[in-house]
Amino acid sequence: MRVYSPEDIEYLDRRALEAVQLLRLKKVIAVALATPFYKERLGNVGIRHPEDLECMEDLRKVPFTTKDDLRDTYPYGLLAVDKDEVVRMHASSGTTGKPTVIYYDKEDLSRWTGLTFRSLRACGCRRSDVFQNMMTYGLFTGGLGLHYGAEEAEMFVIPSSGGNTRRQLQLMKDFGTTVVHATPSYMLHLWSQMDEAGVKKRDLKLRKALIGAEPHSEDLRRKIEKLFGIDAYNSYGLSEMNGPSVAFECTEKNGMHLWEDAYRIEIVDKDTLEPVADGEVGELVLTNLIRHASPILRYRTKDLTRIMPGSCPCGRTAVRVDRMMGRTDDMLIINGVNVFPSQIEDVVMKVPEAGNNYRIVVKKNGTLDVLTVELEVGPDILSDDTRDLYALRGRLTEALKASISIKPVVEFHEPGQLPVQEGKAIRVVDERGNLY
Ligand code: AMP
Ligand code: ZN
Prior knowledge:
CATH class of the largest domain: Alpha Beta
CATH topology of the largest domain: Rossmann fold
Strand order of the largest sheet: 4-3-5-6-7-8-9-13
Shape: globular
Distance between the termini: 41 Å
Bound molecules: adenosine monophosphate, zinc ion
């Protein structure tokens, strides 16, 4: 069987697809057993050898893996290959100080590239396209992830990374960019800056936007399409499952094909953790079938979605998932960056001048998200001399930026000024409206 052939795998019938999955799962189980973490977890349910799994259904015996497991095994507890085999790492926010780190060996990266290549092809990208990748290059997987797939597809790649909107627009104009990869909120921001940058819609050759990394509605997609006169495709991924190209829309734009040859999908009830009925919304649970340096089995993504009914006219057999409908935890996605309130609390609690109450407020300023941390401080620091207050604001802003990778606005309040809730404190106020 040609297991890694790029595109024909997308049209396999279910039986053949499951056969590929099982083959790949067994390999992943074999490497997972090399880590003390999975050796114990799998051993507890009687899996000591890959052959202890006879069919894909047997995967359900395996306990779930969570972000906390990744934190508890930080940094190398889940590394299943020799450190010399690792050629790259990526990281995402953890719930507290420690990030979630993922390792890739050379073959892991080339298998991931295969997926990003396929995703780009599925949404109609061609060799003649000029691809401007506005996702941040770095520990975040958004930038480098699609980069290599685009090169594999022999597109003309402009690795412009995130930010610097004027330059982005200039590049788009000067190099005739036809495809961009960005967060949906950044697409709107680009649009809002065009006048000032002296770039007109007719100066652009854009025909597609690949939008992902943050939740967005169908209305927002349509708005982006209408403003620029382009097609926009939803792209879903998470670093625990490599990064972008876990699920991607094809040119039919009717849900994202979840690349089942690479990821085993389950949708479970978020409370009972039992499978939901076909087509019902639940928590997406994924097993990575193609990565050996960091095997992750039955990962609770905390993202809510459903499997879309029927088959896709494009003929691809991989199931389609609906756009993400929310999260089961309190993770915020602010301009595409994941932020856990607990990360902010960790920093705030270390400030000796902090009073008893704080709030995290997320708002829209134009098209972009703004995070404000409102903090009550003791009366001493609120004296007439504002120098201490400025210094504290500077320190806190920097400490928060170091922890969550985005710069918040820090506001101080007198004791008792912030609203107090009876019962459980409401620390997070999200005023961005309908995200999902
Ligand atoms: P990271 O691991 O930092 O790439 O973050 C992954 C998370 O970003 C996912 O678990 C989702 O909550 C969110 N995310 C990524 N892509 C999308 C998308 N297309 N729609 C909604 N949320 C997304
Ligand atoms: Zn399709």
